[in-house]
Amino acid sequence: MEIPPKSPDGSEKSPQSKELVTSNTGSTLCMSSRSESVWTSASHRSKWDIYHKPVIVVSVGAAVFLFGMVITSLSCFLPQNKNVYKMCGPAFLSLGLMLLVCGLVWIPIIRKKQKQRQKSQFLQSLKSFFFNR
């Protein structure tokens, strides 16, 4: 019979078995899973917590759109580098408009999901009230 080699710190367990014993990958995975998503506790969250991503996208989109307007207008007023302004301006305009529209569409989608979740939670509580007696 072979004797397993001792680990460097002198304990009798092998490094692999120590890693398996102390590993908490499963619990970490469960905590970050979709089942415990932000939607489960939507009633306890503030408006900023719910809408911060679309608000940021709308803000960045508006800023990029305004930057595109400035660059496009520079092509009319400054004769040097006119071609660069004419190329970059519309690109920033379209990118900013795309972000702006995506953020503005995202807000009603979040509202609709929240209403569906509230209805679903209400129906679940009604079902549990009547069928768990």
From TrEMBL:
Asked if Membrane is a keyword of the record, the answer is yes
Q: Name one Pfam family in it.
A: PIRT
Gene Ontology CC entries for this record? plasma membrane
Q: How does it sit in the membrane?
A: Multi-pass membrane protein
The segment annotated Disordered runs over 1-29
Locate the compositionally biased regions of type Polar residues. Answer: 17-29
TM ranges? 55-80, 92-110
Q: Cellular location of this protein?
A: Membrane
Q: Which UniProt keywords apply?
A: Membrane, Transmembrane, Transmembrane helix
Gene Ontology MF terms in the entry: phosphatidylinositol bisphosphate binding; transmembrane transporter binding
PANTHER family on file:
PHOSPHOINOSITIDE-INTERACTING PROTEIN, PHOSPHOINOSITIDE-INTERACTING PROTEIN FAMILY MEMBER
This protein's name: PIRT protein
**Where does this protein come from, organism-wise?**
Mohoua ochrocephala
Specify the taxonomic lineage: Eukaryota, Metazoa, Chordata, Craniata, Vertebrata
